[in-house]
Design brief:
Blueprint: H1 4-22, H2 34-43, H3 48-77, H4 89-94, H5 100-110, H6 128-143, H7 150-174, H8 180-199, H9 223-247
Length: 248
């Protein structure tokens, strides 16, 4: 059983980091504080795989700068030369934008004093960037002992984020232009697993949709983890070949 009060600060940090990565904005301060957040997460990782992914992300960020992240974001979510990754809960729920999930988020929003800043948020209320920011803001209120938001943030996760997030993560991870965002997808995958423990909900079964030509979800692993697995496989194959030669 997770001590929920003790982990809310860390949860706020993760939602804050992820919101910075997925909000569409032209704000020049969009990545402000991101390195500090990454260093804290690397020092206190959710698991080894996400820790390696954070290190890979940090290396790309330090070597190539914010412009590389901005370009990658645009390639993944807006460049028609590739299969654009859709980023709204309505799309994953109904296959269309501005659907019932947008209305559900608006209804949740109406129960708070939080409002969408249209100058900062250019996309719908059920876009991944807005949802993550909304969740971050609610947790910050809970940290201020405004516990009346406990039920609302439970519903926001279980009814909005939980059903579609796995497919979204895989789409980002698989995108041909994803490099830093591949690492972000790995971190998000690990964090969502933690959130399901926090809210005590099981990962939903994969629902095959006509618009998605994939038989099953993809396991997301960091480059370091992929190399480790490849090395282990090579060792196993070498041992098998050695045994076969000895028996011959």
């Amino acid at each position: 059983m997770i001590n929920k009060a003790s982990v809310n600060q860390a949860r706020s940090l993760y939602y804050g980091f992820l919101s910075k990565m997925f909000v569409f904005t032209t704000d020049t301060r969009r990545f402000e504080g991101i390195l500090e957040a990454i260093d804290v997460m690397i020092a206190n990782p959710l698991d080894e795989n996400s820790a390696e992914a954070l290190k890979e992300f940090k290396q790309i960020y330090l070597e190539e700068g914010e412009e590389a992240l901005i370009q990658e974001y645009d390639d993944i979510f807006h460049n028609p030369m590739y299969r654009v990754v859709r980023n709204t809960a309505s799309y994953y729920d109904e296959g269309l934008e501005s659907g019932r999930k947008q209305l559900e988020v608006k209804n949740f929003l109406a129960k708070t004093r939080i409002r969408r800043d249209e100058k900062h948020f250019k996309e719908n209320e059920d876009s991944i960037g807005f949802i993550l920011t909304f969740m971050h803001d609610i947790i910050e209120l809970i940290l201020l002992n405004q516990n009346e938001y406990d039920t609302l943030h439970h519903c926001l996760f279980t009814e909005i984020i939980h059903p579609f997030i796995d497919e979204f993560v895989v789409n980002v991870y698989e995108h041909p232009k994803a490099r830093a965002y591949k690492a972000v997808a790995i971190v998000m995958n690990a964090f969502i697993a933690f959130e399901r423990l926090y809210f005590e909900v099981a990962q939903p079964p994969f629902r095959e949709k006509n618009r998605v030509a994939r038989a099953q979800p993809l396991e997301v692993v960091s480059g370091a983890e992929a190399r480790r697995r490849a090395e282990n496989k090579a060792k196993r194959d070498a041992e098998k070949a050695k045994k076969a030669t000895a028996q011959a």
